[in-house]
Amino acid sequence: MKIKIIKQISLFSIVALLASQCLGLSLPFPQYEPGHLFSSHEIKNFSLSAPLSTLFRARLLNVMAARKVAVKGTLSYQEHGRAIKIPVELKLKPTTSMASCKFPSVEIKFTGSTQRTVFEGTKFIDLNTHCAEALDVSVALFHRIAFFNHREALIYQMMETLEMPTLHARAAFLQYEDTDTNRDVSFNPRLMYQAFFLEDMAEFRKRNRVTEVKAESDFLRASVEQDERDREALFTFRAVSETPQIETEDLARTVVFEFLVGNQDWFIRKTPPDTFIVNRKTANSLVNMKMFERPDGRQILIPSGFTVATFATGEDELPPLNRAAFELATESERKKVLQLFLRKRTEILNLVVLKNDEMIEIMRKTINSAFDQLEKELQKLK
Length: 382
What we know:
The chain is of the alpha+beta class. It folds into two domains: 41-205, no CATH class; 210-380, no CATH class. The chain is built from 14 helices and 15 strands. Strands 1-2-3-4-5-7-6 form a seven-stranded mixed β-barrel. The relative contact order is 0.12.
C-alpha cells in the first residue's frame, strides 16, 4: 500500500478537475489509498504504551528544549482479529496543549515497520489528546473542548467533504499505559479516551509537493529551523495586499468555512496596518491559518486550530461572517463559493453524527442555521 500520487488522470480525476475549474477553486490534493488510516472516518480503538511521565515533564521546558525530549513506546490495535504492535518514538507537539494540558498532544514517529497496517507509507503522524482528566475539565474552556475532541476531527472531515485542501484527520479512542516507574500523569489506564490522529505537516507537504509559508515573526520559527523536516519552510507572508499569489476566491472559501463551524479564533492580515489582539498582545499576520505555496506558485490557505469554534464547544450561537475578508473576493467569486457550500449541505449534515455526544443535535441545528444564513447571502448576489 502506498500513498496515491496521481500521475495518470483517471475518469474520476478528470471529473474532479473539470468541476474544480468550473468553480474556480483550488485543485483537490491526492487522496490516500483505501486501507490507509485517513481513507476512512470509522472510529477505531488504539493503545499507546510509553514512559509518558518522562515525556510530559518536558512541557515545563521551553519549546526548543522540549522538542529534544523523545521517548520510545508502542502503538497497538486490532485488525480482523490480528494484534498489531508498532514501535514508535514520541515527542510533544509545539502547540497550545504543551502549555495548557497535563496530557498534551504528541507527535508520533514510526520506528518499526508499518507494512500491512493502517499507517503504511506514513513516517510521522500527530495525536491530539484529551488534554486533561474529567476532574480537571472545569479548569479552562480549552480543557473541556479537548476532552470531546472528536468534534474537532469532524471539522477537518467537513473540509474534505467541501473539497478543500486540508490536513486529514481520523477520530479514535485511545487507551494509555505509562511505563515510567516514577509516574505522575493523571489518567485511568482502563478507560478509552477521545483522541484523533492528524496528518503530520511535513508529511502533508511531501505528499502534496507544497512549501509552507509562515509569517515573518512566527513564534515557532526558531524551533522549526532546528527541525530537519521543516527546513524548507518560508517566512515571507506579511499581508494579503502584498501577496498576489493568494487567490481571493480561496480566501472567501476559507472565510465561509470559518463561519460555518463558528470559529472566530483566526486571522489573516489583509493590509500591513491590520492587527489582531490576543491577550492584549498584537498577534502575528497569520493566526490559526496555514499557508502553502504550490509548484505553480499559487498560495493556498488551510484553516486550523478549531478548539474554540462553536462546533467544538457545542454552543448554539454563531459568530458573524467576517465580511471585510469575504468581500475582498469579487461578487462572482463569492457566488461560486456559496453555491459550492450549499450544494454540499446534505453531505455535511449527514457527516455530523457522533455517538454518545449529547451536544450533537445542538451542533447539527447550529450548522443548519449557518447554511440558512449562507442561503440568504447567496440571494443577495442574485
